[in-house]
Amino acid sequence: EGIQEPGGKARGRVLPLLLLFLLFITALAAIGLGQVARRVNHVNDETIAAIRTVHQLIHQSALTQDAELFRTLIYRRDGGWYESQQRLLHRHLFLDRAPLGLWAMPLTTDVPITITLSPDLQTALVAAALPYTAEITNGQAQIITLQQIHHYQKRNDYWLMSPLPDDLTFWGEWQTVSLPLLHLTYPARDATISQRLAEDLRQPINELCLVLACPDDFQLELRFTRDTDALWRLQQRPQTALRQIINLSTVYQMWLPTPTLVGLPNDEAGYTALRHGYNNWVATRMVAQFTDLSSVETEALLGELGLHVPYPVGYQPYLPPAITQADWPDQDVL
Predict the structure, then answer these.
(1) Sign of the C-alpha dihedral, residues 131, 137, 141, 143?
(2) CA 95 to CA 102: how far, in whole Å?
(3) Residues 133 and 102: beta-carbon distance below 8 Å
(4) Distance between first and last Cα of the chain
(5) Nearest to 313 by CA among 59, 89, 133
């Protein structure tokens, strides 16, 4: 009794040493992981800064119509998309949406930009809340915000704007909403706003059919398309008649760019501007289909509904400059 087992003292000395060793290894691992995390964050910060710079350069080159700079900042391997972006720039449709009554404004430093990097840091989605001048009614304009989404790829250490992902992960399945007079097809990504627009688009269609010779079973099949040339469709003449479906004499087709491509509103003012732009297009095409009215007569008819013929591509609204103190002539104060 009271006799210590052989090796007891040795084990008593080994255990504290083992614990110290484990604590040392744990501390080293924590320091290493912290350094790795800091390096990752540093790389992410540098990458986000590079993408932000390219995005701002693209926006500026589009506003100034600098085609040479613009070409160096977009992805070339997809030849069809590359050419389409240059056409949009040339026709003032890359940022501006004049036929929808929307005109891009210069970026400011406080414009919210969200950049989402892929896990491999080779692609990114950029969502920017861009300021637009929006024509509302009777030539009145206001400043609104629309969210533009662009996709970037890293090529040879350079970030280039590239086509948006053309897959279900980004766009979702095609969905439809059927209402009297209107059948709307849209990508699931734009489901919420498209369903609301369907209700609001139906109203001018119904009002026009009361004064036009619409067929009894008239149905407009409107598609919010997401293809490469979706925005390019805005450069076509809006007074063009609707496309009639063969063997269905009362069903007509029309395609317009989906809201994600035009710009997503983040408030009621933005939604009102977007809705107004779509309504103008639909109403003008219907008048062209069912009447032979002149341009003046068409404007008068649409004006009664608070609408108008869409503006031509490249049109810029006249906004009188704000009068500042420097604009007043020198004068003597008595």
Answers:
(1) negative
(2) 9
(3) yes
(4) 117
(5) 89
Torsion angle (degrees, nearest 10) of CA 10, 11, 14, 20: -140
- Distance from C-alpha of 246 to C-alpha of 119, rounded to nearest angstrom: 48
Q: Which two tokens stand for residue 89?
A: 């720039």
Bridge partners, 220 (sequence order): 182, 252
**CA pair distance 101, 323, nearest whole angstrom:** 25
**How far apart (Å, rounded) are the C-alpha atoms in residues 160 and 73?**
5
Q: Name the residue with tokens 């709307």.
A: 184
Q: How many helices (H) and strands (E) does the chain have?
A: 8, 11
User: Model pTM?
Assistant: 0.81
With a CB cutoff of 8 Å and minimum separation 6, the contacts of 195 are 177
Mean pLDDT of the chain: 84
Cβ atoms of residues 269 and 144 within 8 Å: yes
CA distance 300 to 101: 18
Residue 101 near residue 128, CB atoms below 8 Å: no
Phi, psi of 87 (to 5 degrees): -65, -45
Strand partners, 132: 104, 144
Give the best-scoring range by mean pLDDT among 38-52, 175-189, 277-291, 302-316: 175-189
Burial 269-306 (b: 16+ CB within 10 A, else e): ebbbbbbbbbbbbbbbbbbbbbeebeeeebeebbeeee
Neighbours of 58 (CB within 10 A): 25
Model confidence over 2-61: pLDDT tens digits?
A: 555 555 555 556 667 677 777 767 766 666 655 544 554 445 789 999 999 999 999 999
User: Residue 12: enclosing H or E segment and its boundaries?
Assistant: helix 8-63
Q: How far apart are CA 266 and CA 129, in angstroms?
A: 8
Alpha helices in 172-241 (DSSP H): 191-211
| Euclidean distance between CA atoms 319 and 17, whole angstroms | 79
For the chain, what is the largest distance between any 2 Cα atoms, rounded to a whole number of angstroms?
Answer: 119
